[in-house]
Amino acid sequence: AALQCLAECRHCQDAIREAGAIVPLIGLLSSGTMITQECAAGALRNLAATNKLNRLLVAEAGGIAFFVKLLSSEDKESKEHASGALQSLASDSDQNKSMIAQLGGIPPLIALLTEGTTEMQVNAAGTLQSLAVDPAHQVAIVEADGVPALVSLLRRGTAMGQERAAGVLQNLLSHAEKRLDVLKAGALPPLIDILEEGSPLAKARAAGALRNLAFDDDDGVVAIVEAGGIEPLVAVLGAASAEAQENAAAALLNLALLDYCKLAIARAGGIELLVALEAAGAPATRKVATKTLQSLALEEFNAPRIAHARDVQEAARRLQADATAPLCQEVSTSSHTEVEVNIDETMLPVKDSGELFTIAAQDGALEPDETGLGETIYLMETLRSPSKIAIEKVDFDATSLAIVEPTPSA
User: Fold this and answer.
1) pTM
2) How is residue 380 annotated by DSSP?
3) Which of 1, 97, 255, 365 fits a 20 to 30 Å CA distance from 380?
4) Helices 76-90 + 118-131 axis angle, to 10
5) By the 8 A CB rule, do 183 and 143 touch?
6) Cβ–Cβ < 8 Å for 369, 352
């Protein structure tokens, strides 16, 4: 019991390991009393939770076999510790995952999804999520009737339980040959419900599940459409989670391969949200959003709407840039060049005539090598004006600049 408490402290974990405590603790899992087993399992769980070296040593000392056995123990605390320890051991080791499956850990983990405490359910689902990355384990989970238990947890579990259950289903649906089994077990409706009501992470996992279901699978696409999945997926595009946005955009990309889905996605408001993600989403999400818009644009009614949405997005970006751009400071210099300035849509040449203009590069668009003048360019102007004028850099490649506002004289 003392070691169990000490093992909660990260600073003490190294000392416990270096004292050689891991092997004798594992020995207590099989030879001690129920209370001793419970305390030993708790100590080992804590040691494995945050320390990769400890996880390696626990596995090498044969701890996985004892934890799998404890999953069926009559002692609640021992089962909670065992399920928690297995979750940690499976988190970053393919060898440990295989060992858990080979030692018969999948059926008792599935049983805990419906029969265990809330903590056991979360731990068991987390372990299964790690195992379900492997196609062989995916088959084993489905064939052990894991999907109905996962669906039950998805419907009635805590937020964390739903997140883990959706994660397992996301991984299972990456196995093309098992998708029908997952659908027959009733997984699709609660996944769509999670898109509307789940936590941000649960939404990301559920969107990932639908992304996998629709990948190169017309039957999966039809199932999602008939279950009313398009509108919830579109709504997730506006979610705060980048992972959820990317998965939802990718799911819609897969759906958009069928013509009748292109219009349905547009009607649900998907075009405007995808354009917004294309402009301001995370890098991976931007790429997926662009591909989805390209697919949607193959429908003739969508193309002008996409063009309009992009125009609106660009106008909003420019307004935002104008609102946040700092005033340019006049700096004396002899450097100057010749470009054109767009003033009221009239292109006028800018040359050396004694009046200093300043051009400020915005959004890091100006590269010093383009002009040889560094990050700030100084121009001499030909216009007759009573004040200095700051010019905002818009597009150096096209040599087009726009006057923003007067700069007071020094």
Assistant:
1) 0.76
2) E
3) 365
4) 30
5) no
6) no
